[in-house]
Amino acid sequence: MIPSVLPTYNRAPLNFVKGEGSWLIEADGRRFLDLGSGIAVNALGHAHPALVAALTEQAGALWHVSNLYQIPQQQALADKLVAATFADTVFFTNSGTESCELAVKMARKYWYDKGQTERTEIITFSGSFHGRSSAGIAAAGSEKMIKGFAPILGGFTHIDWGDHEALKAAVTDRTAAILIEPVQGEGGIRPLPDQCLKGLRALCDEHGILLILDEVQCGVGRTGRLFAHEWAGITPDIMMVAKGIGGGFPLGAVLATEEAASGMTAGTHGSTYGGNPLGCAVGCAVMDHVADPAFLAEVNRKAGLLRQKLEGLVAAHPDVFEEVRGLGLMLGLKCKPAPAEVVNAGYAAEVVTVPAADNVVRLLPPLTISDEEIAEAVTRLDAAATALTHEMA
Ligand SMILES: *Cc1c(COP(=O)(O)O)cnc(C)c1O
């Protein structure tokens, strides 16, 4: 008989009932150190007092009101995002994949309104992940995600990650945009070198096409900058955001320049829940912390500490780990055994990590993790690796 919850997930037998900062408490009382943050969602950890206060205060005032009316919390969050980024304007969604839907629509509408109705193609890259909606799976184009779901939304050209020649050849007078993650998350924590992101910006400028960045996972302070593209010193035309921006409340956004957003006039797009008062009240509290340069400086300092300890871990367990990679607190351990085995060994050692493609285990701790918790995390990962080595022997 089919389970009452549609069985699309492979779930670990873990039942977390409470979260406190960097810790997840299991129903049986065990305390797990959380290096997953709900896949880069709980940017400020669990039950951060400022987020709890923002949520409960708003919950007592007004949960939801339609976008038919003014929403001051939405306006405030948009103002914060515009003040802190390249963007001139923001649309709020409830998830990353909805942000992908709008990014694709916005790019196509831009060219449509310019009279270039043939310019609909969007170039994307192997190993990327843009969500599970029709546009999201079409954009990523991986066989695993699209199989059985035909007809797949058309208009995407898939290029091998790092194949510069194929990329240049793929740009035609039908190209509307290039869409890429500055750091691939699901693909296995693969940062795009700064030079490549600069090159993509130059290529887009040369041909007058739009650059769309998917910062759903790598944005909101995760890499030590508010948004990852800042490391390369370039700006996109359109950017997808979600995950960390809500700190655990389902919230996403599409940020854009005035020019790139010019096609999206009244009536061209909408959402019932997107930008609702509860989500935006929490989003404002997240931004107040994460956009603070002192907070980001701490993220960078702690990222250095974690990375240094992980290099030691890799050196101590050459049978389990190959390398550390990533940026800021978006780190990956390339594994020799299957990543699921490493993740399971972590569970036994009461530390939570997240598997990714390319044989990588992701470490995405709360950005608020303390130095002591970093040391404890690596101690637990070390115990997990030791146990795994004994198992494999
Ligand atoms: C998680 C993710 C998405 C999809 O977000 P959902 O909220 O699950 O729809 C899109 N892009 C990237 C880079 C992601 O990591």
UniProtKB/TrEMBL annotation:
Keyword Cytoplasm annotated: yes
Binding site for pyridoxal 5'-phosphate: G96, T97, F129, D214, E215, V216, Q217, T272
Molecular function as annotated in GO: identical protein binding; N2-acetyl-L-ornithine:2-oxoglutarate 5-aminotransferase activity; pyridoxal phosphate binding
Pathway: Amino-acid biosynthesis; L-arginine biosynthesis; N(2)-acetyl-L-ornithine from L-glutamate: step 4/4
EC number: 2.6.1.11
GO cellular component: cytoplasm
Protein name: Acetylornithine aminotransferase
Cofactor(s) needed by this chain: pyridoxal 5'-phosphate
Cofactor, free-text remark: Binds 1 pyridoxal phosphate per subunit.
